[in-house]
Amino acid sequence: MTAPVAALGQGVARSIALLGALARFSFLTLEAARWLPRAGRRVAFRVLLRQVWFTALQALPLILVLSSILSFLVISQAVRELGRLGATELLGRLMVIAIVRELGPLITALAVAGRSGTAIAAELATNKVMGEINALEGMGIDPLHYHVLPRFGAAILSVLGLIIMFDLVAIVSGLLAATANGMVPARYFDIVLASLALGDVWVTVTKGLLFGIIVGTIPSFQGLRVRGSPTEIPVAASQAAVGSIIAIFICSGLFVFLFA
Questions:
Q1: Which domain range does residue 234 map to?
Q2: Which residues, including other chains, have CB under 8 Å from residue 113's CB and lie 6 or more apart?
Q3: pTM (two decimals)
C-alpha cells in the first residue's frame, strides 16, 4: 500500500533536488560573468558570435516561415468571421494578444529550444565525455567561462531577436491576409497600431529575455551533467529539450496569470 506513496515521494524529492541544482548552476553562471578574465573575453566573444550565427541567423528562415503562415491563417479566418459580426475593430487586439504577445514568443522559444537547445546539450555532453571539460579545468580555465557563458548570452540575444522578427513578419503577413479578404491596408494598420500598447511591447521583450535564459541554462546544465558514458549524450539532449519546453510553457502560463 505504501509503495506508490513512497515512489511518489522519491519522485518529488528528485525533482526538488534537480531544481535546486539547476538554480545553483544558474547562480554560478551569473557569478562567472562577473569574474570573466580579461584574457578570456575575446575567446568568449568569438564563441558567442558563432552561437548567435547558429542559433539566430541560421534559424531565421524557419522562424519567418512559421510566422508568415501562422499569421496569414489566423488573420484570414479572423477577418472573415469578424466581418460577418461587424466587429473588425477587434482584429487589432487579436493580432496583438494572440500573436504578438502569446504565440510569437512561445513558438519562437519552442523552435529555438528544439533546434539549438538540443545541440547545446549534445555538444557539451560530448565535450564532457571526450574529456575536454576536465582538460580545461586542468589548465585552470573555468568551463563556465568558455562553454556556458557564450551560449547563455547567445541564447538570450537570439531568442529576443527572433521574437522581434517573428512579430514584425506576422504583422506584414497579417496585412497580406487582410487585404486578400477585402480589408483596406490603411484600415488594417489603424486597427493594429491602435491596439498595440507599450505594455504589450514590454511583456514581449520580458518573455524574450526569460525564454532566452531558459534555453541558455537548461541545455547547458543537462549537457554538463553527464558522467562519462557516450550513451548519456542523446539522453542529455532529450532531457534538455523536454525540460526547456516544460519551463517555457510554465513561464508563459505565469505571464498569462500575472498580466491577464
A1: 47-259
A2: 214, 215, 219, 241, 244, 245, 248
A3: 0.88
